């Protein structure tokens, strides 16, 4: 017989609860059973103690850490965290190729959520590794949060490291050629290879893969997209999401809702599509759905104007019908949404700089990329909170997505 003197309190309570249940089951009519109140008290005590001893799930622990980090941020810091910018926008230097005390001081003044680098910032492997390591340390020192350190490294015509003579890394070539092979394993290996060398250098975000469908043969995306139909593009995009993830890189499917059929270049001016929402769902949105199914952690919204959907010429990046309607509600996406560069002509010709970030947040975006004037854009968000157009809770909503990704993948 087991000696109940050696039972833990929890085991004793469980034993008592079991005994009470057995006694009740064996009661004949007229037998004396424990009172309902007594049985309820024992059951409640056991349930209470079991709940207290149940360890928190990883998801619950992550949510608690995210909430703790958000609570420690001031309103100003919260707004800064929603911007990803070039290093020069933070430091004010001409072309940044190093990170020292000036960068530390600049990040204390403008504690942005991330920094994106271009070829001019990247001289060779040692310089890049030092600059990124220092920047990451300074960013975490200021807010206790990891920094997104990003780059556009699709391959082919959009490559900042591959083919750069300072790195000794070959350019993997245009994604049109990768897509033409029809080999998804090759597409995954290309992404994994890119991710490996970016991780070695200290990057943690790559704004790739391109999920556009190059349906316009004269369009800008002809070399960058995997193909001209959804059937060709979908499996390649999903394979690259897996490849980047395996390499430890946060990847970003772009440019929602698909700019491969548009005429013109959004760097210079507005670009248009006359398609309806149903037409987009039948083709352009499919690669983004494949990316989401593959676990893509970030989606970039482009500056495509869709008058048949929005009723105006404003770009998709500030459209609730596109960001919330098509992406969040339509595709069920609750990951991080970032705009394309807000310094592009398609954006700056639509709204003043101080309004672009506000409108993007109102549309459902989480991160604003490279506004033409960072200080003006940041102040626009602060002013919108002051007037009640934006609430601090709306900023917290985006911060939860951003910090969930950072603390899960970068901490």
Percent range for β-strand residues:
5-15%
Number of DSSP helical runs: 18
Largest sheet: 8 strands, parallel
Structural class: alpha/beta
Number of strands: 12
Strand order of the largest sheet: 11-9-7-6-3-2-1-12
- What's the rounded overall pLDDT mean? 89
Shape: globular
Distance between the termini: 51 Å
Low-confidence stretches: 1-43
Backbone CA Rg: 26 Å
Which structural traits does this protein have?
411 residues, alpha/beta, two-stranded antiparallel sheet, 18 helices, disordered N terminus
Can you describe this structure in just a few lines?
This protein has 411 residues and is of the alpha/beta class.
What does this 3D model show about the protein?
With 411 residues, the chain is α/β, with parallel strands linked by helices. It has helices at residues 9-25, 36-53, 58-71, 75-80, 87-91, 101-109, 125-143, 175-180, 184-201, 230-246, 277-282, 286-293, 307-310, 320-331, 345-348, 353-363, 374-387, 392-409, and strands at 83-85, 114-117, 148-151, 153-155, 158-159, 205-206, 250-256, 271-272, 298-301, 304-305, 336-339, 368-369. The strands form three sheets. Strands 11-9-7-6-3-2-1-12 form an eight-stranded parallel beta sheet. The chain has a two-stranded antiparallel sheet with strand order 4-5. It has a two-stranded parallel sheet with strand order 8-10. Helix 3 packs across helix 18. The longest helix is centred in the first third of the chain and has 19 residues, at 125-143.
